[in-house]
Amino acid sequence: MSFALIQKVNDEQKKKQVVDARSGDTVRVHQKIKEGAKERIQIFEGVVIRTDNKGQHTNRITVRKITSGVGVEKSFLLHSPLVEKVEIVRRSKVRRNFLSYLRQRSGKSARLTAVQFDREAVNAIKDAHVAEDEARIKEEKAAEAAARQAEKDAEQAKLDAQAAEVEARHAQNS
């Protein structure tokens, strides 16, 4: 296989745009989770302690958070179809790419100095695929709600017809 062919396949798998997440950023990663036939979005919020392969299809961030006193780290491939959205909540001043020293720290010593940034401009990424998915999910929910409402209306009409019939019989007997 030629390198050009591999490059072409890799470029087809990439998303059009991804958020420029840097080490020290506090991010909220929206990830698709499939449980049987159901699909939901799970949010993982923490500090980016490592970034790898920026600009490539294997662009990855490692996010760390403390849950119930236990440190949890997850790596996310930014171009993965399972990663719906990465939202930068806070940006901090750091001087290195790999913040492994945060693993040994807790409490105040694990805090990073915040930096002012334009949150809307950084997080403004329009992905047509994500917008289509959101629109499709909204349409499905609306269709389900309409079907439930139609079912309720039919049941109510049936009850009204029975009530009218009972009233008519009662009027004849009186």
Give a written overview of the molecule:
The protein is elongated and about 90 Å long. The protein has a 6-stranded antiparallel sheet. With 174 residues, the chain is an alpha+beta fold. The mean pLDDT is 87. It has helices spanning 3-13, 119-123, 128-173; strands spanning 26-35, 38-52, 60-67, 70-77, 83-92, 114-115. It starts with a helix and ends with a helix.
Short synopsis of the structure:
With 174 residues, this protein is α+β, with helices and mostly antiparallel strands. The chain has helices at residues 3-13, 119-123, 128-173; strands spanning 26-35, 38-52, 60-67, 70-77, 83-92, 114-115. Strand 2 (38-52) and strand 3 (60-67) form a beta hairpin.
Question: What percent of residues are in strands?
Answer: 25-35%
The tally of strands reads 6
The helix-and-strand class reads alpha+beta
Q: Order of SSEs, N→C?
A: HEEEEEEHH
Average pLDDT taken over every residue: 87
Q: Describe the strand arrangement of the main beta sheet, using strand numbers.
A: 4-3-2-1-5-6
Low-confidence stretches: none
Count of spatially separate domains? 2
Main β-sheet description: 6 strands, antiparallel
Helix content: 25-40%
By CATH reckoning, the class of the largest domain would read Mainly Beta
CATH fold node name of the largest domain: SH3 type barrels
Gyration radius over CA: 26 Å
Number of helices: 3
Overall outline: elongated
CATH architecture of the largest domain: Roll
- State the end-to-end distance: 92 Å
